[in-house]
Design brief:
The protein has helices at about 15-20, 50-60, 95-110, 135-145; strands spanning about 5-10, 30, 40-50, 70-75, 75-80, 85-90, 125-130, 150-155, 155-165, 170-180. With about 180 residues, it is α+β, with helices and mostly antiparallel strands. The chain has one domain: Alpha-Beta Complex (Cyclic Phosphodiesterase, Chain: A), CATH 3.90.1140. Helix 2 packs antiparallel against helix 3. The longest helix is centred in the middle third of the chain and has 17 residues, at about 95-110.
């Protein structure tokens, strides 16, 4: 029996999700993300045993943070050079509170027994997944949206989601919400 797939994320308001969905350039090989799957990930954890899941929930619930605002601005791709795999929108320079919140989520994960995340945190919202497309095929979209400002998000909560993979795509279920205090 394998454990759960979990991730911690900040949700976006429906108005911003609609704006982001409407950006879909309809490029062959680019699959736009459904609006209910758009979020800013603070941490992803695979094969989580039940005991670790329970400890992690306790640690996440103990995180205290104040509400803050994030801009949703600036499109790009991962990787930044070569064949794109992901098209994303960022948070500009972010906000010190976002990086602090990410750090606290990572500390909660370490405290629950997870391996540390070694990749640097690059806050973003995934807009699309790409399969075998050239960088030139998305260049026009990136250039046209280089200065895109999708608005501000008030971050007053974050969520623990479970993710179940299915042939039709992942099913995300909100397991826990932690609100600003």
């Amino acid at each position: 029996m394998t454990g759960k797939r979990l991730f911690v994320a900040i949700d976006l308001p429906e108005s911003i999700k609609r704006l982001l969905v409407d950006l879909d350039p309809q490029i062959r090989g680019v699959r736009w993300i459904e609006p209910d799957k758009m979020h800013l990930t603070l941490g992803f954890f695979d094969n989580v045993p039940e005991a670790v899941d329970l400890t992690f929930r306790e640690k996440l619930s103990a995180i205290v943070f104040g509400a803050f605002f994030l801009p949703i601005i600036g499109v790009g791709t991962f990787p930044s050079k070569g064949e794109p795999k992901i098209i994303w929108i960022g948070v500009g320079r972010g906000h010190p509170h976002l990086f602090q919140l990410h750090k606290r989520v990572q500390e909660a994960a370490l405290g629950a027994g997870f391996e540390p995340e070694l990749r640097p945190f690059h806050p973003h919202v995934t807009l699309a997944r790409c399969q075998r497309i050239s960088p030139q095929s998305v260049r026009k979209f990136l250039k046209a949206n280089a200065d895109l400002d999708a608005g501000m998000v008030r971050v007053d909560s974050f969520h623990l989601y479970s993710s179940k993979l299915t042939p039709a795509g992942p099913i995300h279920t909100c397991e826990l919400t932690i609100s600003a205090r």
